[in-house]
Amino acid sequence: MTTVPLTAETFAAAVDLNEIVLVDWWASWCGPCRMFGPVFEKASETHPDIVFGKVDTEAEQTLSAQAGITSIPTLMAFRDGILVFSQPGALRAKDLEQVIAAVRDLDMDDVRQQLAAQKTA
C-alpha cells in the first residue's frame, strides 16, 4: 500500500475504520518533512495492512489545529481509533519500524482500561 492523503472529510473515517493508522503531518516547504516522506512511503510498502496517511498542514489548517499540530513533521499512530503515539520530528527508518512494532504489540484491552481509569479520576 502507498500513502493516502487525508483531509478533514476523510480523516475520522480512516482512523475509525482501520485497525492501525499512521499519520504524517507535513508541509511542502518543510525540509525535515521532505526527508521523512520517503521513509514513510517505504514503510507503507513494507506494511500493507497499515494505513499510512498524510495530512498537508497547509491545505488542512483546521484539521491540523484540531489535532494540536504545532511542529512538523509530526507522526501520529492510531490503533482501534485511539491515539497511541504522537511525536514531532523526522524519524529514521529503524525508529519508524520500532514505533510500528510497539503499536502492533500494544495490549488494547489494557489501553482501554487505562483510558477509562483516567476519565473517572
Automatic annotation (TrEMBL):
Keyword annotations of the record: Disulfide bond, Electron transport, Redox-active center, Transport
Family label: Belongs to the thioredoxin family.
Acetylation is among the record's keywords: no
Protein name listed in UniProt: Thioredoxin
Thioredoxin domain segment(s): 1-105
Organism: Brevibacterium samyangense
Recorded superkingdom: Bacteria
